[in-house]
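Researcher: Structure prediction, please.
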Amino acid sequence: MAVLEDLAADAEFDGIVLCSVWEEWLDESVASDQEYLADAYDNLSPVSIPEAVAVGLVQSQFVTFRRESNFRELVKSFVLRRMPPRDARSMAFSRDTACDFSVVDIPKLRLKQEGGPIADLYRKPLGTTDHYQQGYQRVHEAAEAIRQRGGEVWFLRLPTSGWRWKMDQLRHPRDEYWDRFSRIEENTIHFKDLEAIASLDLPDYSHVDYRDRPLLMKTFVDEIRARGGFSDLIDTGGTL
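Model: Predicted structure follows.
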């Protein structure tokens, strides 16, 4: 919500926004929790961009220890003269992150998801119906401001599966939340309405393996184009 409103307030922005939406983020009462995302761009210092470029270049060129590594693991690796377990996540120079779940113990990962911080999110107090209605309207108005300048905004409900999809539906039944949002904001696409990805089994319940990324993106892009989106790209021969 915060980033979308930041783009809407920029009179020069008339681009394309593909906005990933989780129902929780549409609760207007927690909108302020998202401000740090927009602030990260608004408060850039003269060295922020060169620093980000330098860090990105280093991360894309060197093999590093996984994020979960600790001092004990580093010492053990040095003594035994072997690399620690591979991190399933990799980051390109563009800051694009991909997951290779073939190097992960999937059952163990899923147990961790079901009992970790993600599970805590589902125990948070739920906002009122009015809070969500106000959130839907705020998001729609921000999208409309961008469209009036010639831009495009699409709201995508990306896949979740297994335990997480079950929890999503217990907390935010589709007919009571997403469908109500869709009646206010026309440019919404729910993964369950797209046959090719409706039943994706996600290793950690909420992220696709890098091998499935082309299918995921192509399915959403095809749907958007079928509904008249990306017209400028099509007319000028542009690509995504």
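Model: Residues 2-40+99-236 form one domain.
Researcher: Thanks, that helps.
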